[in-house]
Amino acid sequence: MDLLSPRPGVGQIKPYRSQRPPQDGRRWIDLSLTQNPLGPSHLALAAYREAASAIHRYPDWSQDALRHAIARRHSIDVDHIVCANGSEELIHLVTQAFAGPGDEVLCHEHGYRGFLKAIRAAGATATIAAEREFVVDVQAMIDRATDRTKICFLANPNNPTGTFIPADQVQRLRAGLPPHTLLVLDSAYADYCRRPTYSDGTEIVENSDNVLMIRTFSKMHGLAGLRVGWGYGPAAVIEAVNAIRGAFNVSSPAQAAAAAALADAEHEEATYAHNAQWLPWLSRELERVGLRVYPSVCNFVLARVPTDPSLGVQAVIDHLAHRGLLVKPVADYGLPDCLRITVGREEENKALIVALAEVLG
Ligand SMILES: Cc1ncc(COP(=O)(O)O)c(C=O)c1O
């Protein structure tokens, strides 16, 4: 018998792996991660550099300046905000705080895989509701909830499908879940979605006592490398997360840069405008070279490679890599014939289409 063995659930987790640009001196175009192609805000960079001179000190455990900046920017109550080392950490913390062995946590079919990892790490059981055509099916989620369901995760919009459900559907989901279930709304891509029927979930948080909204600085704000996410929710949830998080979980340069990024409306507008211009272009061009593209409201698209016995997804990925381009295979999302492709800079998007046209004929 092994003396050391992690608890059940941990063995089901596959460590994160993704294709990395080889260090071969070539300039690689990485469209495999959902990053901001324009980079960070210059205000965030300046704040980061200034904070560097004080990195011999521990960060502010109370995250005060950053929480106040978030509260001001989003007109929300500072006492109901908690920050974490990326929204990924927050997903883990809230799962750990509210679910454990014997509990169920509800997710959707092609939902963000970070949820499953957190659920398994906490020793809880994931239950999965089917989607319809890559869109969350609220009734299917309600039907899957039981008296053991402690958390329901909804990524809205979702990664990797790029689809969203409107605010009234989110409200219907909340109303249909048992009162003992915490609805976690992961709004990582909210900044890209300006559809009139969409809401990041702020009002739902404010009108209920069992909803937590999660946001990130990794996407629109271009700070993926710094790892800053935040949550807005009821006092009981914020207190539980604060109780178990590391006191210094967000580094001081990260807190400073994130707070500064919120003041850079110009960077945000430029990022939004870039995406609004290139997302439709990319979707159109991908269709033109033969991929099936699903409509996205995010900074990436999900594209299906045509069924052709002589050409699989891997052959496409290999050809792109040969041309110095990385995209994301999404087989572990139950989408073995699809790729997730992030909107890049103009020349990157164009290089991708040229390389795809070569391999797809
Ligand atoms: C839906 C969703 N939630 C959360 C995350 C985690 O983001 P981060 O930990 O960088 O804040 C991602 C990252 O891709 C995501 O797509």
UniProtKB/TrEMBL annotation:
It comes from Azospirillum griseum. The gene is hisC. Its EC number is 2.6.1.9. Homodimer. HAMAP family: HisC_aminotrans_2. This is Histidinol-phosphate aminotransferase. GO terms for molecular function: histidinol-phosphate transaminase activity; pyridoxal phosphate binding. Gene3D superfamilies: Aspartate Aminotransferase, domain 1 (3.90.1150.10), Type I PLP-dependent aspartate aminotransferase-like (Major domain) (3.40.640.10). It holds the Pfam family Aminotran_1_2.
